[in-house]
Amino acid sequence: MTGSPAPQHYAPIWSADTRRTPPAVGGERETLDAVLDWYRATFELKCAGLSSEQLSEHAVPPSTLSLHGLVRHLAGVERWWFRIQFAGEDVPLLYYSDDDPDQDFDDLARDAAEAFAVWHAECERSRQITAAAASLDETGIRKSSGEPISLRRIIVDMIAEYARHNGHADLLRERIDGATGR
What we know:
CATH class: Mainly Alpha
Radius of gyration: 18 Å
Order of helices and strands: HHHHHEEH
Number of strands: 2
CATH topology: Four Helix Bundle (Hemerythrin (Met), subunit A)
Helix content: 40-55%
Strand order of the largest sheet: 1-2
Distance between the termini: 27 Å
Structural class: mainly alpha
Largest sheet: 2 strands, antiparallel
């Protein structure tokens, strides 16, 4: 089979990898910020080049996960942790209500490009909040308990959130078009 194209399920999706590699040596804050941004960029790469319909596809039944739903969810998580919990901003929740707690995944009526614009804006606001903090030891207040939570813990939890959902995105992307990546 010399000269045959590689099977589609081995097609890499990393041809335009513009992620900035986190530093191998650096301070805690620089490292945590860089790793979180690397995971954000990784998620975006996993979604790159797909149509709105593909992004909204529930590709791993019976799960209702989709890349479109994940981007909505991640925008909401960014807002919840950085703006509401840490900075104490009085802003509405995104894609969530007590009556419809799963609307980030279930209500995909709007175009995925809009969800990405919201996610980009939330990530940028999160970066601004993080940059304005004097220290990783600064705290916000958990809405559920009234207990303090440090910026350090929020960033670590966000890294875990993105790592988990990047794994979901890997599976979804491979089912949608066979593309795989790291």
